[in-house]
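Researcher: Go.
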Amino acid sequence: MKRAALLVGLFIFAKFPLEALDELPPAWPDPAIFKAGETVKFRLPFFAGLYTYSDNTPLYNLVHLPKDYDPKRAYPLCVRLHPQGGNPDVEEFVKMTNDQAIVVGSCWPLAQPREEGKKYGTIGNEDAFYPAVALWAMRTFNVDRTRVYLGGFSLAGFTAIERGIHAPSRNVYTHFVILGAGLRGQYYPDLFKGKFAFIGVGTGDDNMKPAQAASALFKKAGMEVEYFEEQGLGHAVGDKEMATLIEWYKRSDPAVQADAWMKDAAAAESKEKKKACEFYAKVSTLGPNDARGKAAREKLEVLEGSALVAYEKACERFRLRDYIEAKKLFEAAGREAQSKHADRLVDLCTSSMALCIDALFIEEMMDYEEAFFTGRPYEGLLMVQDGAQRFGADKHFAERLQGMLKYKVLTDLATAARAADPKRCAILDKLMRARVQLWSGKGEPARKDLEEIAKNFADKPEGCDAKRMLDFLDTILPPKPAPK
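Model: Structure:
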């Protein structure tokens, strides 16, 4: 991966110093603001310091919940990227899913230039940004992990490939929807063997050849691809293209396929337990308020037993962002699944352990972006140094982090910050140590430092970070009651 492509977000600061913005990051949104049948605008903490478009409008995302949203049901998650010059939208995916999915309209993360006349640039970790958005949604809502879609039309389709077919997304996204777009930039389709893609384009679209190339490459890499060309269509999403996309989606929709899948599962039970469990698991996502979903869940409980309980316990820990403990629980659940010959869960536990590591990387990169764009390049450098050690065994992550460590702008800004304000940097050292302790599953020793920083720097980004970490610590490891 080329360093210039990875660090374009830093390049815009190469000729002038980064001012200390002290912009407080947004809080994690309260899940109560999202209502069934509504599309709600919201921001995430790692948007701090970033702006989009020429009017300095703060970045935002959208979430649309189905009109009959049932929190006991697991829904597909669709992250719809926006096209060139557009704002976040959810239209295509709401239509594709017949308003039966959680749809996120994602912004395009742009860094605001510090000099008039300079061009905007994207953040350096854009390929971590989109799975970070998905991971947030997976923690906030009841998401079916086997149906997580990324895509959109035109630039959104190009971006879904250029930034989505990368290591950070390999255990997050399962389906890609590429409309009026195709190959561009760098991508790693071999990491997505067995995943799914729909590629649609018009024969009058200048992007038809890139779309054809994407279809051929994805198939060669072992992805399951549905390719469709609409005759005479230019650069647009045609009616026939949309109809074909909807039919493709229905093939994996349990609301449509449940009756057939229940019959297939029953037929497979005696000889192909894994196949039967996979069918039952798909139908069970309909939840206990659907008779078929309830029956499928009961079948899974009989066939997978204690292994299913252990796996779901690990999933709950993952939703709390306690990735180190979750990884241990997935490992234990995998052993239990092996002992019970629950092969479906063996595979899920293996991929979930890998996802725990990827999620740690994604979170560190988003914390890095927030630190850098709120005037804390010194702390940003500390994160990159930590990441280089933590993820050195993964060639995809290690190459990027080593490139960032060699990037002179970052190191020069960090050195200048250390010289200009050593007292503040000493606080950032403490904050970084606390991050490392939390990411290593040993958060309690960090509590005292975090409380001090949260109190003394309440109006600064580092104080806000400390408060967030304390809230996280209290979630995974509540403070002991004072002795009587």
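Model: Residues 343-373 form the longest helix (31 residues).
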